[in-house]
Amino acid sequence: MENSKERLYHDVERLTGIEPARNYLNLEALEEAVRYIKGELEKLDCEVQEQPFKVDNKTYKNMVALFKGKSSAERIVVGAHYDVCGDQPGADDNASGVAGLLETARLLHQHKPPLQYDIELVAYCLEEPPFFASEDMGSAVHARKLHEQKVKVRAMICYEMIGYFSDEPHSQKFPDPELARHYPHTGNFIVVVGKTGQEAYTQQVRDLMRQHTDIDVQSVNLPASFGLVGLSDHRNYWKYDINAIMINDSSFLRNPHYHQPSDTIDTLDFDKMAAVVAGVYGALIRL
User: Fold this and answer.
1) 164-190 pLDDT, tens digit each
2) Which structural domain range is residue 191 located in?
3) Distance of CA 80 to the CA centre of its chain
4) What is one Pfam family matched by this protein (predicted)?
5) Residues 55 and 26: beta-carbon distance below 8 Å
6) To the nearest 10°, the Cα dihedral for 32, 280, 7, 96?
7) What are the start-end ranges of the E strands in 90-230?
8) Using a CB cutoff of 8 Å and minimum separation of 24, what contacts does 108-114 make?
9) How many domains does the chain have?
10) Which end of the chain is more exposed for a tag (fewer CB within 10 A), N or C?
11) How is residue 265 annotated by DSSP?
C-alpha cells in the first residue's frame, strides 16, 4: 500500500512530466492535466464533475469533487491551481498544491470521517498570468457560481506551493523587517496566510494543523492591500465574505526556483509535504 509521500511524489511526477508546459497557451497540456486529476478523483467515493468556462473563445476547465456531509446547508471548499506560468514544469508552483488536493481527497475516501459539512475540492485553471487578479481566473469562476447558486460556504482553504523547504540558516526571506522579527529565519515551516480581519479563522486552522502534524505551522494576517497575502485563488472568495486562507511555503521568499525552469520535482521535500497535508486534513474535518 502506497503512503502519502509516495502518492504525492507520483502526482507531482505525473503533472511535471506533461509537455509542453501546462500554461494557458497549451490547451492539450491542460487537458492532459485535467484527465489525470479527474482519473484520480474518480477512483474515490465522491461526485466528480468538470466545470468548463470560456476565455478568449477557448475552453478551460476546473475539476470539482464533492464529498457529502451530514448537512448540505454549508460547504467547505479546498482548492489548488494546476496551470503554470510560462514554460516551466511548475513542481512547487503548483503541482505540489494539486498533489496536496488529491491526497486530501484520498484521505477523505480512505478514512471516511463523519463530515458535518459538504467538502468540495477544486483544481483550478488560469491562476497564473496573464489572468491573475482577473475575473477569468478559474477560482473566480468557481466562487461566482457558488454565489449565484446561493451555496453557503463556511470556509475555504487554498493549497499554494507546499513543497519547498530548507534547513539552511537564513534560508527564509521576509518582505519587511517587522515580519522578520516574528518568524523563524530557517525555511522549514509552513504558513497559514489570511487577510486582516480573518485572525480567528487563520489561527483556528493553524492550531488544528499543529494538533495533527509534526511540521512547524505558522500563521500570518496582513491587509489585503499588502500584495503577498492575496497571491492565489483564495482571493476570489473574499469578495463574498468567505473566510479564505492560503497554505503556503512562502513562495519566492524562500524558493529560488519560483517561476523558473528549475522548479523541478527534485527540489521538493515530500516528507514535509506529507506532513503539511496531514495537518490540513486534520484541520479540515474539524473546522
Assistant:
1) 999 999 999 999 898 999 999 999 999
2) 4-284
3) 3
4) Peptidase_M28
5) no
6) 50
7) 117-124, 153-159, 189-195, 216-222
8) 108/44, 108/46, 108/67, 108/281, 108/285, 109/43, 109/44, 109/45, 109/46, 109/67, 112/45, 113/285, 114/70
9) 1
10) N
11) G
In angstroms, the first-to-last Cα distance of the chain is 29
Instruction: Please state the rounded mean pLDDT for residues 224-234.
Output: 91
Instruction: Report the predicted TM-score, pTM, of the whole model to 2 decimal places.
Output: 0.97
Give the amino acid at 209: M
pLDDT confidence of residue 203: 98
Give the domain CATH number at 267: 3.40.630.10
* Tens digits of residue pLDDT in 17-73: 999 999 999 999 999 999 999 999 999 999 999 999 999 999 999 999 999 998 778
Q: Is a pLDDT exceeding 60 seen at residue 1?
A: no
> What is the per-residue DSSP string for 90-121?
-IIIIIIHHHHHHHHHHHHHHH----SEEEEE
Q: Kind and range of the H or E element at 206?
A: helix 199-211
pLDDT given for residue 69 in this prediction: 94
Strands 47-55 and 58-67: antiparallel
- Three-class SS of residue 75? strand
How many Cα neighbours within 13 Å face the side chain of 56? Answer: 8
From CA 169, how far away is CA 187, in angstroms rounded? 8
